[in-house]
Amino acid sequence: MCLPPPLEFSMKRINEVISKLEHQVGTVMLISIVVLVFASAVLRLFDFPIIWSVDASQLMFVWISMIGADLALKKRSHMGVDLLVRSFPVKLQKVIALISYILCGAFIVFIAYWGIRLCILNYLRTYQTLKISYSFATAAIPTIALCMFSSLLEQIIDLLRNWKDAQRVQ
């Protein structure tokens, strides 16, 4: 099955941009958490606690966790057991991979749907110290689910583009 090059190129390009943004945002958030928690601990020794540090760190940690899940999906780094599948013929491996991608896509849609519902339910709930809606944390779920779906779509396109190759599935 051959897909038009513009679709393949634009999907790869979009995911590259998203990936770079995720790396940068994740790096800034991780550094911010470390600095914030360290500064909070040190300042607490001098009776000057940063009362909002726990809420801010928790908010950033939720986003970092979801970003990490997408980056792992992009690199195909999620844990898997393929001992049995690798013994199958290449065509069967590709069929199994396609079914796996479709199931993962369905799960991502499921997560996105319930993540949106969770955002709506948490709209009025606020962080005690930050005075912002808890939906800022729960919004990580549908937002990154959209990114994950895009990553998965790129992998499906790559699989279909190389369907006739005798190369094993990665």
Please explain how this structure is put together:
This protein has helices at 5-45, 53-74, 90-121, 135-138, 140-161. The mean pLDDT is 90. The chain contains five helices and no strands. By secondary structure, the chain is mostly helical. The radius of gyration is 20 Å and the shape is elongated. The chain starts with a helix and ends in a 9-residue tail after the last helix. The longest helix has 41 residues, at 5-45. It has one domain. Helix 1 (5-45) runs antiparallel to helix 5 (140-161), helix 2 (53-74) runs parallel beside helix 5 (140-161) and helix 3 packs antiparallel against helix 5.
How many alpha or pi helices?
A: 5
Mean pLDDT over the full residue set: 90
Query: What is the radius of gyration?
Result: 20 Å
In what range is the share of β-strand residues?
under 5%
Proportion of residues in helical segments: over 70%
- Uncertain segments are none
The coarse overall form would be elongated
Number of domains: 1
Q: Spell out the helices and strands N to C.
A: HHHHH
Largest sheet: number of strands, sense, barrel closure: none
